[in-house]
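Ops channel
N.P.: pipeline sanity check, posting one input/output pair.
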C-alpha cells in the first residue's frame, strides 16, 4: 500500500542549534517528492534521500530566512547543473509574493519557476492535491495541506493562535505544527501547549510539534504538550512519519 511519508529534515527556528538545521520537510509517496521549506542546512540533508536532479517541487510557506535561506545556495547549484546539462528545466517553487526583495533574490538566472501562493491556489502534484490557508505572522505566511487518497497531512507553518488553523487542520491524519514557544513566552509563534490545543480541537490523529528553539530541551516541549494530548511527538532530525 502506497503511503504518504513525511521526513523531518530540520526543525529548529529561528536559527539552527549545534549540528541542527532550520525548517525543512520532505513529503513523498512512491511517485513524487516535495520539499516544504528550505531553511539553513536543508539542501545538504535533502541529498541523503534524493539527488538534486530529482528536486522538482519546493513549497516555501513564507520567506523568513529560517524557512528559505538554503534557496540562496541551491540557486547556485542549479545554475551549474543547468550549464553542465545535468538538468534542463527550472525547479518549480511555490511561495508568497512578499517580501518582494526576497522574491527578487529567487529570480537568479531563471533556475526557479516561481508561482505565488494564495488561498485560491490548488496544486496537483503527482497524486497529491495541495491547498493553502493564510496564517497570522509578521510576513505573509501560509499553512499547507496535502491530500492523497483520503489521507491528509497539514503543516501549520509559523503562526499565532487562530481559528482558521483549527478548521484547516480538521481531522488531519498528521498535523505538523509550530510550537516554538513555551508557556509564558511571547512572540509571533504558537506555544507547544497551543499547538496541542489546536490539534485536539481539530481532532487530528497525530501531532508533531516543530520549529523548536534550540535553547529549549525536547523534554520541556514534551512536558508541555503532554498536558493536553497523549502520544504527541516533538520533531527530531531524520524522523519519518507515515500516513
Amino acid at each position: 500500500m502506497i503511503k504518504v511519508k513525511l521526513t523531518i529534515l530540520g526543525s529548529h527556528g529561528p536559527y539552527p542549534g549545534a549540528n541542527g538545521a532550520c525548517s525543512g520537510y520532505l513529503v513523498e509517496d512512491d511517485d513524487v517528492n516535495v520539499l516544504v521549506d528550505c531553511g539553513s542546512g536543508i539542501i545538504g540533508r535533502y541529498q541523503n534521500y534524493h539527488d538534486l536532479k530529482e528536486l522538482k517541487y519546493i513549497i516555501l510557506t513564507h520567506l523568513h530566512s529560517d524557512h528559505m535561506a538554503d534557496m540562496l545556495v541551491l540557486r547556485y547549484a542549479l545554475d551549474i547543473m543547468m550549464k553542465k546539462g545535468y538538468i534542463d528545466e527550472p525547479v518549480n517553487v511555490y511561495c508568497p509574493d512578499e517580501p518582494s526583495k526576497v522574491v527578487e533574490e529567487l529570480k537568479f538566472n531563471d533556475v526557479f519557476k516561481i508561482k505565488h501562493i494564495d488561498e485560491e491556489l490548488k496544486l496537483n502534484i503527482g497524486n497529491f492535491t495541495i491547498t493553502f490557508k493564510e496564517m497570522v505572522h509578521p510576513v505573509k505566511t501560509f499553512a499547507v495541506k496535502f491530500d492523497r487518497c483520503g489521507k491528509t497531512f497539514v503543516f501549520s507553518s509559523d503562526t499565532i493562535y487562530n481559528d482558521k488553523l483549527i478548521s484547516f487542520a480538521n481531522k488531519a491524519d498528521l498535523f505538523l505544527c509550530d510550537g516554538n514557544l513555551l508557556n509564558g513566552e511571547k512572540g509571533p509563534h504558537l506555544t507547544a501547549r497551543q499547538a496541542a490545543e489546536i490539534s485536539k480541537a481539530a481532532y487530528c490523529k497525530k501531532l508533531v510539534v516543530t520549529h523548536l528553539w534550540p535553547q529549549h530541551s525536547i523534554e520541556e516541549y514534551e512536558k508541555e504538550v503532554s498536558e493536553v494530548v497523549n502520544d504527541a511527538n516533538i520533531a527530531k532530525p531524520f524522523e519519518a512519519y507515515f500516513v
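N.P.: looks fine end to end. The chain has seven helices and 14 strands.
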